[in-house]
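User: I'm writing a tutorial on reading structure tokens. Could you give me a worked example: one chain, its sequence, then its tokens, then a sentence or two explaining what the tokens reveal?
Assistant: Sure. Here is the example chain.
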Amino acid sequence: MKKSMDEWLREGLTDREYQIPHSYEKKLEQTIKEIENRKVIHRAGRFSRFAVNKAAGVVIFVFLLSAVSISSYAAVNLFRDRMSSMSETERQNYNSDIQNCKVDEDVLSRELTLGEREQIAVLREQYENEGKFPQKEIRQMKTNEGTVADELYFVADESKFYLPERAMTEEEMLQLIDLQEKRDYSVRQQNEAEISEDQKGQDAGEPDAWLERRSVETVAKLYEIAEPELEIVSNNVKDRCYEVAQKDSGSRFFVYYSEDHAIERIIYKKKGVSAHQSGVQSESLHIKRISKKMRKRAEVFTGKEMDTQSSYSMMEDSGELAHGTISFYHQMMDGSVCVAVYSTAYDDLYDMYKLDDMKEARQQIRDKKRAVGERGVRYQEIK
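And here are its predicted structure tokens:
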């Protein structure tokens, strides 16, 4: 019997040993119990012949994928940020497509070759653990509008990936993986909302109008955008996240707050453009100009003056930036640290967050170096 892709993926994962914290094991056990006792939303399997308890399988499978590399800060955050940066509308649309589809499982227009299966397994690991993302999103259609010759695309009403008859390129495989992950994540978010609805009702409270205004003001000041051009489009009070949109452009800014209502992170998503890209040579960048720009962003974000600055990036042996991003570590005068992640695709700040001190920053840098040290990629300082 021919194996489905997910069977190949499971075999690949079982060949590796990972350290999973005890707290995650407890959380997984609790999640399984809650799923057994509650009605959860239907979710199709990734491909035909992937036989599991559908909704429970998605929760457990995605949970395990995010947990296996928990020791690496970079691995967790690159994947998490890509998923969480989806707008509420995107997640709702994905979830709606899945629930309304009459097909129980995702299917392919043709069987994958052995080479494609093996390469997709490798790319999925790199997607999860190294932030290797596609340059563009897969072409999506609501209904089948007819054959698109020699091109990869997805039809939502059929829950079907139409593959080119030729061997898929690496970019196409990443696009396929990207859509699978986003659809699974969207359903998992909805499942979690159903599972913990009562608890959320007790803890969430109502959106804070003051925080909404503050989110708009902060984005306007940080990115030098006039406030009338910005608006709040959604909020997630439980996660303390407010989504700010730039009108007409479609760009989104996700503002995260700590429990004491301090802004601790901002993520920028430019419509139709991935913040990560390959093929950028470090020598072609104007590092001084970029570092000056990131310093200004850090001082606006923290309201403090910078003391010292250093920059790091994941580098290929060829001298190219592995993900097209550079992390600028700013030690502020009070000893705290602000990290500004610059995207070459955006030519601007993509992600900004705070760390307690340089000790935490140095540990983060060491973790990233260990995470990529055996994969032909180096996390190194750029000057």
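What the tokens reveal: Residues 1-24, 39-44, 48-73, 198-205 have pLDDT under 50 and may be disordered. Residues 170-195 form the longest helix (26 residues).
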